[in-house]
Amino acid sequence: MTTMAATLRAPLWRRLVGFNLLTAIVLGVGGWYAGWFGARAIVGPSLDYFADVDYNELSVFLAYLGGVVGFLAGLGFLNYPLARLRGYPPSLREKETEGIGRYFSLCTDHKVVGIQYLWGIGLFFFIGGLNAMLIRFELLRPNHQAFPAGTYLTLVGLHGTMMMGMMTSGILGPFGNYLVPIMIGARRMAFPRIEALTFWLLMAAGAILETTIFFGGFPTGWTGYVPLANEANPGMDNYILFFALVGISMTLLGLNMIATIVTMRAPGLTWTRLPIFVWGVLSTSTLMVLAAPVLVATLSMEALDRTAQTSFFVAGAGGSNYLYENLFWVFGHPEVYILALPGFAIVLELLPVFARKPLWGYRLAVAGLLGVTLLSWLVWQHHLFVSGINGDLRPFYMLSTELISIPTGFTFVCGMMTLWRGRIRYSVPMLFCLAWFFNFLLGGLSGVFLSDVPSDVTTHGSFFSMAHFHYTIMGGLVFAFFAAIYYWVPKMTGFQLNERLGKIHFWTMFLFFNSTFMPLFAAGFLGQPRRVVTYPQGLQFLNDWVSVSAFCLGASLLLFLFNLVYSLAFAKVPAEANPWRSKSIEFQLPSPVPVHNFDRIPVFSSDPYGYGEAPAPVVAPAGAPAGRS
């Protein structure tokens, strides 16, 4: 408290000087220019292969790499290793009690990092949503072009890439970082500085992607396919750097989560007592650690093709375009479940609270999460059914894609049986959970058409596949994301969100989401391809309907933003410590949770979903050691 008070009394100029976001931006800009001009100064016989390379390509890569290094240095990420090299003793904490400034700098409190993720990802989520509004504005007319065709392709690519890159950490970033240590009875994450690094890498990546418009954008959509990527202008380099940084962030985030869950569980918290949300985080983290490095390696090869004249993916020089597709989807399809699994886990975590029943089939639900994790590695080539795949391989990938519906079905069965004969409370988080069932079911059923070769030939690359994807990801992950916000943000901030505005937000978002994407199934069957700026005149009514519905969907998200700002900045109605009467351990703590989480390490002695029974966590005597079982 003394440190915080001294910080608040310090003059403004002194608070701005130091290792914080402002310094990071200044050093990041300086590092960018150092890299840009440094690339143009590269000479020497050992680097002759740069002679025929457009210096803009190399300059873009080195400029942004220098910018990221300067940005991280300005935040203070080099301070700890340099201090250790100079012989100073290690410190476990960084800026954990420094008031509001800790949210704009490197902070090792896992709860601060979770809130940083919530606002940071929220910012880029709304930027991605704005791009979607621009796309739908362009498609109001079949031939009218508010934007040139190349700009339209960049808007499509920015929307898809931003959403796919940022929302991979949409649940584990804010809610995994904030809640997992508390749920397992720990006081911190296993590697606090790495935890903070994953957030700031993600923010740097988002800024890099947005600046692609200054280099001409990129024409490939979110998949970055070659040879189009090899032929694209320098804006393609921003795409490569964005996803590479996202991949590094995902890998480190997953490793940190796994290490924390495996090694830092409190006494009594056996694997069969682990909250289902933590199982979802563990499953997702496993996919992150295994899949994201494949993405980083693939994009590194593409960067070398563009700058150093290698030929990994250049068919004319002995490379293979098809290799890129395979490598991308070896990451890309597990990544779909990196997005989906946290939604499963949130829904199963919240249903017992609002149904006032234990989670039905706990072990079956865990088996479902682990089964999806395993099978997600065996389905990637269904994305390549129309890309020249060997015909003999098609039946296997059809079968494996269909088989993954079995563990997915486990989660549905567990959720529906938990609802059966429950005393359901239709609070805002519960409404979003119920909508998840409806949306994800439609997404799964429409996926059957894409997993079978005969129908995929018709629907691949059309608005049908785009509608399917939005039903599974936006209808699944994003609805679960909002359920988590309404459920946990009062605990995270200490202030409750307006219930009436929340219900209006839910109903408008649910109705207009379905009004937006359901007609696109028909548009896809009628032959409208995605990423194409024009379409037949006969499809204008469908597209106008979808565009107007999309604008209303965007307005519903603005209503949520108003609710968030109004409730947290103006109304400031204090939240109860346990407004949902949950038995989960995080709701047994004050709101907001103190820096040290627990005065005493808890001991777990019962089922976390035993409603009607004794509370799950029991506080151990003072001085009891942390451990695991």
| Rg over alpha carbons | 25 Å
Integer tally of domains: 1
Give the averaged pLDDT, no decimals.
Answer: 90
Q: What's the tally of helices?
A: 21
Strand order, sheet with most strands: 1-2
Q: What is the terminal-to-terminal distance?
A: 36 Å
Say which CATH homologous superfamily is assigned.
Cytochrome c oxidase-like, subunit I domain
Overall geometry comes to: globular
Helix content: 55-70%
Largest sheet: 2 strands, antiparallel
What would CATH call the class? Answer: Mainly Alpha
CATH-derived topology: Cytochrome C Oxidase, Chain A
Strand content: under 5%
Number of strands: 2
Which CATH architecture is right? Up-down Bundle
Secondary-structure element string: HHHHHHHHHHHHHHHHHHHHHEE
- Alpha-beta classification: mainly alpha
Regions with little confidence, pLDDT below 50 for 5+ residues: 1-8, 614-629
